Amino acid sequence: FKPNFLVSVFIIASTQKLPIMSADGELFLEEVEEGGSATNLGEEVTTSDHDDDDEEAAETPELARKEGHAVMALRILLVMVFLVSPVLASIGVYRYVRDSEEDEFEASFSLTAHQILDSVGVELDALLGGADGMALTRISIAKSHNETFPFSTLPSAGNLGSNFLAQSKARQFLESLVVEPQEREEWEKYSRENNGWVEDVTNAMRQDASLAGQAEAPRVKPDFISNNYLPPEAREAVGEDEVYLTTWIAYPHRPPRFPVYNADVLSVDATLLRVQQAFKSKNVVLSEFLYQFNSGLPFFSVEMPLLDRGDSTDFSDVDVSELKLLGIHTFMTQFETIFEKIVPEDVFGIHIVTRNACDQIFTFELNGKEWIYLNNTDGHDPSFDEFEVSRQLIELTDLVADKRYRGPPIDREFCPISFSIYPSQATKDSYTSNDPRTFAIVVVAMYVFTIFLLVVYDLLVSRRQSIVMKAAVQSTSIVASLFPSNVRGRLFGEPGKREDKPKPFLAKNAPDASASPKEPPVADLYTDATVLFADIAGFTAWSSAREPTQVFVLLEALYGSFDELAKKRRVFKVETIGDSYVAVSGLPEPRKEHAVVMVRFAREILDAMNLVCNSLVVQLGPDTLDLSIRVGLHSGAVTAGVLRGERARFQLFGDTVNTAARMESNGVPGKIQASQATADALAALGKPHWVQKREELIDAKGKGKMQTYWVNPKAVNSSRDDTESLSDTTSSHGLPEPRDKRDGLIAWNTETLCALLRNVVGARGFVRNTGFGQQLFSSSAHESILFERIDQIMFHKYDQDGSSSGLLSDEVETQIKDFVTAVASLYPNLPFHNFENATYHVMSLNTMIGQTRKMREGSFYAANPLAEFAMTMGVLIHAIGHPGVSNQQLVLENDSRAALYHGRCIIEQNAFSLAMKLLMDTKYNDLRNAIAATSEEWNCFRQVLVNSVLATDTDDADLQEQRQDQWDACFSHASSLIAREENDDSRRNRMTTIFIEYMVQSSVLCLFMQDWGVYSKWLERQMLEENQASEAGRAVKKSDSEWAHHQVSLFDSLIIPLATKLNMSKLLGGIGLEQLNFAKQNLQECRYTEAAADFPSVED
Prior knowledge:
Elements: H1 5-14, E1 17-21, E2 27-31, E3 39-40, H2 47-144, H3 157-168, E4 172-179, H4 184-193, H5 197-207, E5 244-251, H6 269-281, E6 285-286, E7 290-291, E8 298-307, E9 325-334, H7 335-339, E10 348-356, E11 361-367, E12 370-375, E13 389-392, H8 393-398, E14 417-422, H9 425-429, H10 435-480, H11 485-491, E15 522-537, H12 539-544, H13 548-569, E16 572-577, E17 580-585, H14 594-615, H15 617-620, E18 628-642, E19 650-653, H16 655-665, E20 672-674, H17 676-684, E21 691-693, E22 698-700, E23 704-706, E24 709-711, H18 721-724, H19 741-764, H20 810-826, H21 835-855, H22 865-877, H23 887-892, H24 896-900, H25 906-919, H26 925-931, H27 935-951, H28 957-970, H29 985-1004, H30 1012-1031, H31 1040-1064, H32 1070-1091
Parallel strand pairs: 18-20
Antiparallel strand pairs: 1-2, 2-3, 4-5, 4-9, 6-8, 7-8, 8-9, 10-11, 10-14, 11-12, 13-14, 15-17, 15-18, 16-17, 18-19, 20-24, 21-24, 22-23
């Protein structure tokens, strides 16, 4: 459908020949000469040439017709897609925006409902606290006047009652005292002589504006205890041998037609149940719902027992059943006094349904600052039942953070009141807008415009397609012999577009743009592959005595047999370098059994070597039998792709390739030497009996001491049946399913974390897990961790050394993969601060961790497997949610996160918060239990994680100064590198703490300590990211010279000192020196660039 510009340009530039379709459908070749006319070359070819041309002429029209049909089918498909996709996209956008509004509605309502319930709890606690304070005041006044109950009155009852009601928002206060039968006569005399409080209350009521019109003096002042509250037909004389609960002081007092005091409350039906409950239990009782006679609004009463508590003000440790009941204080309270303080301003249509166990119910509606009593039924909309937030009234007081109430216990049995909060359609409508429809229309419009452009584009390129068709077919046949099928497809994919822009200052060492069009490189990361290096031992001496033709006879015969074996085993031959043969299994088609396949292939080429040499001994001489082959294997992640330009070919890159070469160069002729990774892969595939541990460690260049293994499969079947039986990841065509780059990065990180966590489990041994992981992260997910960093981490000690791996359950491994996938999704789509960059940092850290394990014996290093896991997780998460600008810029922009995190380490602390919020999810319970089985483990894990995340901010001057001071204190002398006292745990912990912080910094700054190509690649991405920020007005744009100067300054002030420290520690072995050397080399390159006069523009 689209022309291949790469192929057409190649053909025009090299052969200058194009297939041209004539008017009658015949194909002929024309040679286009510069400045001349076209000449038919058909008459100048030989008979053989005619035969070839005839064959091509017969095949090409058929191919063209097939391609034409394919193009037409694709066009029809695209038309259908373009008709359907706008509809689907608009529906998707509409639903997404609508769902976002609904999610916002649900979250906002849930928050509002809990705020309302919390406020109700606070108001009720204040009411109860005030009531308890009134009881304390009453008892205190009686004691100060040497009065004993019930023979006690309240001086200034009007003022005290008025002040209490103003503070507590209660509507009425009533005191009822316990009168024993033998006290009745004396009490009735006392009440007649000491009823002056009635006048005092009446006067206070007259001064209270809220009681205007009610301050009428009572007409009934009974001289004896009565039951006058009962209707006349139900009145009976109060017995002389009963205990009385007689009313005494009230504010405001009863209406004039009722007796103002000396009413036996126990004889009143309307109050009997709740008063009896309080009378018997000596607990505070909340009444059933009551209704005002004039307004019909509901209210309830609080029955507070008046207990002879002595000097006690806190009932938390008091048995109230042992205390004497002096009386009961009753407080009448309307629900409106509770609701009037809690209504949020921007809330509409919230329904509060209040019910109790006495089958009473009523409904309020909250609108802004107003509340409305609806009715005495359940008035909420049943369609919103799923949003219900419900609590019992008594439970709300238990949730108050700073409780005022310390009085008698609250009764939980008598008609318990509950609140149920629901939204309504009005609430939901306040979160609904026209945005879903607007966005859907915009998406459709964009699709229509795109379709128009594509139609025009199709008309322009369709003519060129017929011209380049034959050339493309011919080129494909050539490329097919050089590249894997999946790489060929990408090489002949969409053409790139060159941009003639000035190159940045970093581009002086980059490949020329003319040799590599500006389009995505043809490269992939394969996380699971096994690389083979095979080298002929003795070949140099043997070939020096042979003619060139003899040398090639051997090599062609030998490598030809290897190629046949590779084809049978589906092993990919990468290249031959001199007398070395390089092959790989696990790419370009991922294979689970790559290690087993490669071992079988290695065993077969050893046998093939003997067979070929024996077959050529007569032709090449007897010493040919002295030749043998060394084979080295290593398994791991491999970067594979095509370096475009002159003589492009498929190549492998990465540490796995280097390690495989080291396995071969340190091997023994006639044997297969494998690394630890390959040995582990064979064991995982059920072939541990193939592996034999090599007695001595090898000294591999650039790797240091390494443990390797001899591999010898017991039986090799040349058929493919046994190989294919191992694969459980093949498709219906027998080929492994491809994995894209992101999935590869996720898989690699997942396996890295799993491996580290297995070390934790192995070091932990058998420890009974108490489910501690489910209690983690109880603190706020958005609190600042800036001041949690410490100079000395107490590293948890394990009985095991962590050298042996434990087992992880399938659930834990699945949760690790889910967690890594979620972290990947939290990374923004930025040129530099992205998930690939984080993975590169993790790879660097993982390499350093592996080296420290080899060098730690006898050193100060005290980090355990749990710390290594925490460090790795810290590096993985340190830049999630990155805004694309620096911390300083966020402070300048007054970003809300800057205030939340005190203007320091903003990005890092935000990343920590996001990761912790993610890890808090209940679906990661098994993972958290695997990380920390005890609180000591958790403290170690969290502290290492905090220090590691904060260490990734190298711009915080205060933290950097603290680390420098700590390093100087720990490593001021060379002898300090080794802890001189084995029991000096505190000193070793301090030294290890600062070392792992610097190791984390080295991992996130690893691009500065790699070769120039890696450094310049990532720095260009960083420059692009900052340029994007400057174009958005969020950063100051640097000139090219400023960039160069900044890099030189960074190397001098941070990178070189950091690499020097780590190299001085001796814990990183050759890696430390390699990093330091690369850093110095890159510094020299930057200085050279800074000193150059002709800086290219940084706009590239």
